[in-house]
Amino acid sequence: MIERLNGTILEKSPSGRVVVGTPGGVGYAALAPMSTTLRLPPEGSETALFTRLVWNEKSADLYGFLTRPERDAFDVLVSVNKVGPKLALTVLSSLDPPDLARAVAEQDLQRLSAVKGIGMKTAERILLELKDKASRLADAAGDQGSSGDGASGGAPSGLLNEASSALQNMGYGRPEAERALRGIVPPPGVAGDAALEHLIRGALRVLGRNF
Q1: What was the pLDDT predicted at 142?
Q2: Is the torsion defined by CA of 156, 91, 207, 30 positive or negative?
Q3: Is pTM, for the whole model, over 0.90?
């Protein structure tokens, strides 16, 4: 079982694919939630990922996470009937572990069904099956905090374009992505991938509320 990957980031994309080159010269491709890909350092940098190897009838897929709480939340999600690894990544791309733990603890159907690709019936099933695992999710969340909403104003156009592209890769149309990003700005002192993550998470909250 592959539990950790340590090496150099050879490739990464907001769509969720990360390739890590190990000292032995092997490059491992892992699928990751947006919360991981946006916080990874640039290509060529060293990183360490918590991983989970998932076998199915046709292949063995590796999933990577920047934090242990993300991987633990992934493990809890895939324990739900008809929730596969890729759907679990979709959930974690919109809700970080603390947000997911709160949604389950409060049985917040609206919050979970707002995730792109999660229908009402799937959201109901997830909440029902995880109801007795709320404490496990809370433990998985640990001290990992969630981002706040953006302030009024505007972010740099280049950053907005990157955020819009990432939202479009998640299935949203360009007009609704741009509307959702309007007025969201990173907090003072926050830049780079952290700023991009702030914009996207803020937009996802708007999209979940209004679309």
Answers
A1: 59
A2: positive
A3: no
User: Which tens digits make up the pLDDT trace of 8-48?
Assistant: 999 998 778 999 999 888 999 999 998 788 888 889 999 99
Residue 189 region by backbone torsions, left for phi larger than 0, else alpha for psi between -120 and 50, else beta: left
Q: Is the dihedral of CA 83, 136, 31, 2 positive or negative?
A: negative
Rounded-to-5 percentages of helix, strand, coil across the chain: 45, 15, 35
Task: State the fold for domain 68-141.
Answer: DNA polymerase; domain 1 (1.10.150)
What percentage of the chain has pLDDT greater than the value 70?
89
Topology annotation, domain 4-65: OB fold (Dihydrolipoamide Acetyltransferase, E2P) (2.40.50)
Q: How far apart are CA 88 and CA 140, in angstroms?
A: 15
Domain regions of the chain by residue span = 4-65, 68-141, 157-210
User: Class of the 157-210 domain?
Assistant: mainly alpha
Under the banding of pLDDT at 50, 70 and 90, the label for residue 143 is: very low
Element (H, E) at 40: none
Contact 176, 194 (CB under 8 A): no
139-161: b or e for each residue (b if 16 or more CB lie within 10 Å)? ebbeebeebeebeeeebeeebbe
